[in-house]
Specification:
Belongs to the fatty acid desaturase type 1 family. The protein has about 375 residues and is mainly α. The strands form two sheets. Strands 1-5-4 form a three-stranded antiparallel β-sheet, with no helix packed on it. A two-stranded parallel ribbon has the order 2-3. Helix 5 packs across helix 8.
């Protein structure tokens, strides 16, 4: 069997697996949000400042320890061991920094503590250090929660329609291009989203997270966007000072490369939670908040990565339904809701690299089923499905 036959066989197998996957129901759920809330133990809604700080401090301690070990011992390693040690450090530190990023995401939802001012101060400081404008992202992310699953209003990964796909796209469906596209997406998508609102909803004019008058924000939010910008500028000044003192190459290896690994992991998790052939999307005629909130799935990456990410990947459905439940109660809340959710609940334990490749091959554009009466319900499809 030639290389072309192997690739063709692999693609056919992926397409067949997709056809066998069970879609999340697109009809109005037979339950309400109140029904789900009643099923969750009351203590799951309690936010403990002490417990939340314990996760934050332990996460910071691991990041600081990794930084110390890299700064102290990797330069002492003989070649080529040092060339092996640096990528290990980048990936490991990037993962734990992603854990910090997840806690900041929780701070933005006021799921860290009962005190909004505590959450905002901590989120502003830590997210600024992670080159994320805290308030700006907080507000755009809340709009994502308010419009999840909407073709036109969702801020997070709205699917492109078939008419918007370039004519040459189908000729670029090959393993090499797909791998390159995945790498570019992982490492560049988050900065491009913040800077240019890339891979988000379309506005009638230029949108960015750094302009207080961007159409993303309303009048009540503009001052806090300026504060977010000030936080990023302060972080850049600190970065400049450190790189001037120790050298840019040192700062690149110690911080910037791990930061891009953080962005890559954040993009991978959020993309896979919302981009799947089993998940419906709705136009304005079909969209309702509860239906939209259920257009996501949980991801099981195994105990190690799940723990590093504070199980945010594995309890995402609960998060969309009740975003103020802290991560340490989200698993219990999820288990309590499962009997009611039924087929509206899905979890995928496919290894992350396989899931990314599958998504890149199968989720090219969205369109309604041709034989369905619900033309306002859209599903991901690919050119291979039409063969």
């Amino acid at each position: 069997m030639g290389a072309k036959d192997v690739v063709s066989s692999s693609i056919d197998k992926l397409a067949e697996e997709k056809r066998q996957q069970k879609r999340v129901p697109s009809e109005k759920p037979p339950f309400t949000l109140a029904t789900l809330k009643k099923a969750i133990p009351a203590h799951c809604f309690h936010r403990s400042l002490l417990r939340s700080f314990s996760y934050l401090f332990s996460n910071l301690a691991v990041c600081c320890t990794l930084l110390f070990l890299a700064k102290t011992y990797i330069p002492m390693l003989p070649s080529p061991l040092n060339y092996v040690a640096w990528p290990i450090y980048w990936a490991t530190q990037g993962a734990f920094m992603a854990g910090l990023w997840v806690l900041c995401h929780e701070l933005g939802h006021n799921a860290f503590s009962e005190y909004v001012w505590v959450d905002n101060i901590l989120g502003f400081i830590i997210h600024s250090a992670l080159m994320t404008p805290y308030f700006s992202w907080k507000y755009s992310h809340r709009r994502h929660h308010s419009n999840t699953g909407s073709l036109t209003h969702d801020e997070g990964y709205p699917p492109p329609l078939k008419d918007s796909i370039p004519w040459h796209a189908k000729y670029m469906e090959n393993p090499v291009f797909t791998a390159i596209a995945i790498v570019c997406l992982l490492f560049l998508a988050f900065p491009l989203y913040l800077l240019f609102n890339g891979n988000s909803r379309k506005y009638d004019r230029f949108a960015t997270h750094f302009d207080p008058y961007s159409p993303i924000f309303n009048d009540r939010e503009r001052l806090q966007v300026v504060i977010s910008d000030a936080g990023i500028l302060a972080a850049l000044y600190v970065f400049y000072s450190v790189s001037s003192a120790y050298g840019f190459a040192w700062f690149l290896c110690i911080y910037l490369v791990p930061l891009f690994f953080t962005f890559a992991l954040v993009i991978a998790v959020t993309l896979l939670q919302h981009t799947n052939p089993t998940l419906p999307h709705y136009d304005d005629s079909e969209w309702e908040w509860l239906k939209g909130a259920l257009t996501t799935l949980d991801l099981d990456f195994g105990p190690v990565l799940n723990t590093i990410l504070h199980e945010a990947n594995a309890t995402h459905i609960c998060h969309h339904l009740f975003p103020k439940i802290p991560h340490y109660h989200a698993h219990e809340a999820t288990e309590a809701m499962k009997p009611i959710l039924g087929d509206y609940y899905q979890i995928d334990s496919t290894p992350i690299h396989k899931m990314l490749y599958r998504t890149a091959k199968e989720c090219i554009y969205a369109e309604p089923d041709q034989d369905s009466k619900d033309k306002g319900v859209y599903w991901y499809s690919s050119y291979k499905d039409k063969i």
